Amino acid sequence: MQDNPLVSIIINNYNYDRFLQSAIDSALNQNYPNIEVILVDDGSTDNSRQIIASYGNKIIPVLKENGGQASAFNAGFAASRGEIICFLDSDDLFFPEKIAEVVDVFARHPDIGWCFHHLRLVDTNYNILPQEHDYNSSGEYDMRSHLKKGKLRNRLPCIPATSGLCFKSSLLQLILPMPENIVILSDNYLKFVALGLTKGFCLCKELSFQIIHGNNACTRRRDRNQVIGKIHILTAYWLRIKLPNLDKFSNNVLAEGINYSWRAKNIDDSAKLVLKKYLSTVNMADKINIYLRAIYNYLKK
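and the corresponding structure tokens:
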């Protein structure tokens, strides 16, 4: 990696005009100077595009029809030029030192492909919300052998949402474009595929604010079980397509999706179709194991 590499900050936005300016400013006001800020607007119908236009050439706008988060990731990455890619949800904020810290990690660990870090959860008034983090386990992590055995739970100190994800562009070229029908929480697909392809670094610091406002994609939602169930089922299916050697892990992700769907007592039609399609590709022994794991997780929790 070059000294002072270009870092692309990709902000994905849909109808979050009330947060958007703060997110853009947090990206532009980094201590690290060599950045480009790419704003992907996914067909917003609020005041987002007027806000984007007000920044002129300070940011790179990508204006597209509504297609969901996965399509926004694909479009943002296609427009990027950086050696390092950092994602930012438009309702979140980066700390000013975020990019400098991440660049330092990649410089000190040249063989890694990803860097994940903690998020600080706050409400809309920036009051800190209670949560537990492991702050003493920063270091390199290689999850590939664990994923082949179907295991990930409690083996990684941070598996953050979008605004805590950073990648080398060379790794993302192996992941993106991603399937665009994973329309919600596409960051799960990014994380799991990255973990299955190469080792990375967990930086156990809070370097982004995640703002909890009642309309988040998943965090602290009232319908969280239904949303997570659908996310896991869709993610499991595409993991099986992308990384068939990690079939034990994708089976476990599917079982978790079934578990959450049972808890929600609801599964939408699209998730039902994908679940049926996935199960049609596995043998009877695997199908039994999937449902046994789902039952175990359901009873355990």
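(Above: one complete record from the training split.) The CA atoms of residues 115 and 279 lie 33 Å apart.
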